[in-house]
Design brief:
This is Indole-3-glycerol phosphate synthase. This protein has 13 helices and 10 strands. The protein is an alpha/beta fold. It has one domain: Aldolase class I (TIM Barrel), CATH 3.20.20.70. It has an 8-stranded parallel barrel, surrounded by 8 helices. Strands 2-3 form a two-stranded antiparallel ribbon. The chain is globular and about 50 Å long.
Amino acid sequence: MTEAAEIEKKMYLPEIVAFHRQDVERRKAEADFAALELAASAHEPRGFARALREKAKTGPAVIAEIKKASPSKGLIRENLDPTALAIELEAAGAAVLSVLTDEPYFQGSLGNLRAARAACKLPLLRKDFMVDPFQVLEARANGADAILLIVAALNDIELRTLREEARRYGLDVLCEVHDAEEVERARALDCECVGVNTRDLKTFHVSLDRAIELSQSLPADVIRVAESGITGREDVQRMRAAGFGAFLIGESLMRAERPGEALKALLS
């Protein structure tokens, strides 16, 4: 990779977060809050963390991700059908689903979240860049059972505010960390799930060893989630031995011709 390309990659997170801070203000100005609150109250959360914890008792709990594209990898699955994928991944043994709702960078949508919700009985994570409490209301109103909080993207006040808003709406939280400093910041949030992203945000290098090292400092009572770089059964077995009970797997499934078969092979 050229130096220019590496610099471009390093800019993804700041650029994406800045976009969402602006975009959420636009959506708030246009939103029908009464309708969103009504939709949120009609949605009964399915228990994201509970489903992961139960599945992890007998085997790896997979968070199967419905993802069309990413800034670093480009288009991953051209003809993405969230309805068909939700049905297929549920039948293949996924514990829960993660649905990308970021539009400009990952080509996701809240519509994909609603479609997956209607197609299966699994709990759903809204995978997006959460920067404002309004997005938590949006998440529940569109059928999410959990939200993602990326420690690297938020200051401590924002993290606490969003964590409390998730509690208020009855949603679980997957808190994503990348290094030891972020683990310490995450401790104060008392989240149900903590995900260690094996991809370094500065170099984009994936290291399972670094994730295993970080796992030792996670609170004992959280669901430990390994994120990124899990490509096969050997990776899953190694991470389970290190204390991870859940695994967020997206790209390898979405690139497979039959994602359900790929998931079955990984779980076998």
